[in-house]
Write a structure and sequence with these properties.
Number of domains: 2
Strand order of the largest sheet: 4-1-2-3-14-13-12-5
CATH superfamily of the largest domain: DNA Polymerase III, subunit A, domain 2
Shape: globular
CATH architecture of the largest domain: Roll
Mean pLDDT: 85
Number of helices: 3
Low-confidence stretches: 1-9
Order of helices and strands: EEEEHEHEEEEEEHEEEE
Radius of gyration: 18 Å
Length: 183
């Protein structure tokens, strides 16, 4: 949101691996890696670069999808709505905005769905994939608690799975009530 604070590590960075430069950005739940220098991002501090690069290589079972079919399954991306009271600034006369609690806006409701055995917020993934192009992508998933990758030649997206309420096993709650893509 405009005017909101960027938590450490959530700003876009440049990282280098095996002589290749990658532009990377995250919101804490989704990482997007773009091959090359996408903008005038700063090089990541060594500790942050190591943390980010930990997620660059996909792990787990994989299969391919046409990107347009994956995007169709995910649905149209829905973006946060700016707070009408503070106009996205997160502050008011008495400090933090009373309506948005200082966030500057309101996130969309999660849109759960399964890809393989990973429960994801389909909207978060749709938002990350919206500007990206490829014909075929490789989708990598491990289990319900591990990151999930969508990989193309020039980019990769990594998403953290949704957590089950109260720490229960995601495979045991409402498993059949959410859409499913893949085995």
């Amino acid at each position: 949101m405009p005017g909101s604070r960027t938590p450490h590590g959530h700003q876009p960075y440049l990282v280098e691996r095996d002589g290749e430069v990658w532009s990377v950005a995250t919101n804490g739940r989704v990482l997007v890696f773009l091959a090359g220098k996408a903008a005038d991002f700063e090089p990541a501090p060594p500790v942050v670069a190591a943390q980010l690069l930990h997620f660059i290589d996909p792990v787990g079972r994989s299969t391919s999808f046409y990107l347009h079919e994956l995007k169709e399954y995910l649905g149209a991306p829905v973006w946060p709505v700016q707070c009408p009271q503070c106009h996205g600034q997160g502050t008011g006369a008495a400090g933090a905005c009373s309506q948005c609690k200082g966030d500057g806006g309101f996130p969309p409701e999660p849109r759960p769905g399964w890809v393989f055995s990973v429960l994801l917020d389909r909207n978060l993934l749709a938002r990350a994939l919206e500007p990206l192009q490829a014909e075929i992508v490789w989708v990598h998933g491990q289990d319900c608690r591990k990151p999930f990758w969508v990989v193309a030649d020039a980019w990769r997206v990594v998403q953290v799975p949704l957590s089950a309420p109260n720490g229960h096993d995601p495979n045991s709650w409402e498993a059949d009530s959410y859409p499913r893509l893949g085995g």
